[in-house]
């Protein structure tokens, strides 16, 4: 079924030739024009749903159900009602588990605040199976090794095959990609190659490159339309697809301090690129808030350092960098250390990874 779906998407994308659109890039955060200083995305209206709970009927709940459907939390058709029914309650509870919120099943303020945050367009749950907190057995903890890992893979653990670790990437030729933008992506790829045997080289041939990068508006041929300013920011497909798409409507900050932006819509390009490359290499979403593979990102925020959860996940798939760099990023802090006693990143990681896979049920998929 999934193969048929993939084949269908592939044929759709071959038939569909999107109009070339120039994305909004800013090398100076103060140059973001006021009309791009969005007060919020389409999801802002979800604020009106705050405080509602099971049994109620509220205008707009059908849109929230569509949201949960898009990210894998509700199955079925897209003909949703405004009733707060069992399916929505269950979706809210699963979402709350995945995003480390109190599991109330109601649309409390913290939950709504999380829902409206800009995020990656890749689903958290595929084929009814969650790879985040809600799908982990026993919270994936171990007192023996004091490791808490939340990293996850796509169904079947797709990865680039051994012998094809030297990957090439190319930009959609219609884009006006400057040296600064090329530099952002090169740095993002370097972060992953520094902890794995993978290498990434810029190619000028999108037709033959392993990874193709493009900025698009709205529908762009893969059945996953972008939604304008904020909301979904980007998405990427698991190996060996190599398709890496970003929403052209965002205010992409390139080579400037995104924290200094006064625009409420400023998004750091490198932060999103590092996350999406994780998908291109085979990682799914993680519930570790500090990790790169956490699905949401706050505007005006830079988050580019791989965390221990990201590094453990990627090294499970590919092993460590043969040059001996097993990851210089700082270990995740916060909830990882609070409930698991700290994360472990060391040269012994590879020897324990098989144990991790069997012992903790890490091979749970989307
Ligand atoms: Zn993602
Ligand atoms: Zn796409």
Automatic annotation (TrEMBL):
Residues bound to Ca(2+) 1: 250
Cofactor: Ca(2+); Zn(2+)
Binding-site positions, Ca(2+) 2: 210
Domain of life: Eukaryota
GO molecular-function term, one example from the UniProt record: metalloendopeptidase activity
Residues at which Ca(2+) 3 binds: 227-228, 247, 250
GO BP terms: collagen catabolic process; extracellular matrix organization; proteolysis
Residues binding Zn(2+) 1, per UniProt: 220, 222, 235, 245
Catalytic-site annotation from UniProt: 276
The keyword Transcription is assigned to this record: no
SMART domains reported in the protein's UniProt record: ZnMc (SM00235)
Motif (Cysteine switch): 118-148
Signal sequence residues: 1-23
Cofactor note: Can bind about 5 Ca(2+) ions per subunit.
Cellular component annotations (GO), alphabetically ordered: extracellular matrix
Protein family: Belongs to the peptidase M10A family. Matrix metalloproteinases (MMPs) subfamily.
PANTHER family associated with the record: MATRIX METALLOPROTEINASE (PTHR10201), METALLOENDOPROTEINASE 5-MMP (PTHR10201:SF272)
Protein name: Peptidase metallopeptidase domain-containing protein
Organism field: Quercus lobata
Gene: LOC115982537
């Amino acid at each position: 079924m999934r193969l048929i779906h993939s084949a269908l998407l592939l044929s759709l994308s071959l038939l569909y030739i999107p109009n070339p659109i120039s994305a909004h890039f800013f090398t100076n955060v103060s140059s973001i024009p006021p009309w791009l200083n969005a007060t919020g995305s389409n999801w802002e209206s979800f604020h009106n749903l705050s405080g509602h709970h099971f049994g109620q009927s509220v205008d707009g709940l059908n849109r929230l159900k569509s949201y949960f459907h898009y990210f894998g939390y509700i199955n079925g058709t897209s003909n949703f009602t405004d009733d707060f029914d069992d399916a929505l309650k269950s979706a809210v509870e699963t979402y709350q588990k995945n995003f480390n919120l109190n599991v109330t099943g109601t649309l409390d303020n913290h939950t709504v605040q999380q829902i409206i945050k800009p995020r990656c367009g890749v689903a958290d749950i595929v084929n009814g199976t969650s790879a985040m907190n809600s799908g982990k057995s026993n919270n994936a903890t171990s007192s023996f090794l004091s490791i808490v890992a939340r990293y996850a893979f796509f169904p079947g653990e797709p990865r680039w095959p051994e012998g094809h670790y030297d990957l090439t990437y190319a930009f959609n030729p219609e884009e006006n990609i400057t040296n600064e933008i090329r530099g952002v992506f090169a740095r993002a790829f370097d972060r992953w190659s520094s902890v794995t045997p993978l290498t990434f080289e810029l190619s000028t041939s999108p037709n033959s490159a392993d990874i193709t990068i493009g900025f698009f508006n709205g529908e762009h041929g893969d059945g996953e339309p972008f939604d304008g300013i904020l909301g979904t920011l980007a998405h990427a497909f698991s190996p060996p697809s190599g398709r890496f798409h970003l929403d052209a409507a965002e205010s992409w900050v390139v080579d400037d301090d995104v924290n200094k932006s006064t625009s409420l819509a400023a998004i750091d390009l490198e932060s999103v690129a590092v996350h999406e490359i994780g998908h291109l290499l085979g990682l799914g979403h993680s519930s570790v808030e500090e990790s790169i593979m956490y699905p949401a990102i706050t505007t005006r925020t830079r988050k580019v350092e791989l965390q221990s959860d990201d590094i453990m996940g990627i090294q499970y798939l590919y092993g460590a960098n043969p040059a001996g760099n097993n990851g210089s990023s700082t270990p995740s802090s916060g909830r990882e250390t609070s409930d698991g006693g700290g994360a472990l990143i060391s040269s012994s990681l590879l020897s324990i990874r098989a144990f991790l896979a069997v012992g903790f049920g890490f091979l749970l998929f989307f």
